[in-house]
Amino acid sequence: MKTFVLAGGCFWCLDAVYRKTRGVTDVVSGYTGGHTADPYYEQVCSGTSGHAEAVKVTFDESIVPDEVILGLFFASHDPTTLNRQGYDVGTQYRSAMFYQSPEQKAEFAAAIEKAQADWKDPIVTTLEELQTFYPAEEIHQDFYAKRPYEGYCQVIINPKLAKARKYYAEWLTS
Questions:
Q1: Beta bridge partners of 24
Q2: Distance (Å, rounded) from C-alpha 36 to C-alpha 81?
Q3: Closest CA to 10 of 52, 56, 46, 42
Q4: Alpha helix ranges (H) inside the chain
Q5: CA angle 125, 131, 133 (to 5 degrees)
Q6: What is the largest CA-CA distance in the chain?
Q7: If you write DSSP's letter for every residue of 1-45 in order, what string do you get?
Q8: What is the crossing angle of helices 66-75 and 158-168, to 10°?
Q9: Annotated catalytic sites, by residue?
Q10: What is the pLDDT of residue 87?
Q11: At 63, is the secondary structure helix, strand, or coil?
Q12: pLDDT tens across 115-167, in order?
């Protein structure tokens, strides 16, 4: 098993994509990259804690390769917008990859370089050393599956899932 911690805007979006990915065994929405201990949602949303909304994705690399997990990351958000994903604005919505070792940092850097070919504008995804990852409140876990008909899910998450399916259909379940 391997684990990546990735931030690409609202964690509900990445959570929805990775929960539908074959070989992914666990997805936890949470907060990382900030300076406040034990942050809660309102603190993170205010931008005062320094944390990003992120997902901790655990996957079986014998089923799904790292390249697919990382490709889905870049397909599921716009890595060229600084501290913003659509209407979500602030450092808590930054595009970031939180590495756990020098090898993972190099792997993430190579993934950014590879993904740049798919984007006209420069990728602004940051590489940050993973410190503490705080799981988000239960209401944020598996949000899309629990509330697929809510407006945010219909307007924001569904198009991201459609884009992920366009490029990675063989890896995604329905």
A1: 59
A2: 25
A3: 52
A4: 11-19, 41-46, 66-75, 102-116, 143-146, 151-152, 158-168
A5: 90
A6: 41
A7: -EEEEEEESSHHHHHHHHHTBTTEEEEEEEEESSSSSS--HHHHH
A8: 140
A9: 10
A10: 85
A11: coil
A12: 999 999 999 999 999 999 999 999 999 999 999 999 999 999 999 999 999 99
pLDDT digits (tens, 9 = 90+) for 32-77: 999 999 999 999 999 999 999 999 999 999 999 999 999 999 999 9
Residue with tokens 């990735």: 6
Which two tokens mark 158?
């569904």
Q: If we measure between CA atoms, which residue out of 83, 79, 82, 86 comes closest to residue 108?
A: 79
Measuring CA to CA, how many Å separate 42 from each of 11, 14, 86, 92, 155? 14, 20, 19, 11, 23
- Record the tokens describing residue 121, joined without a space: 């504008």
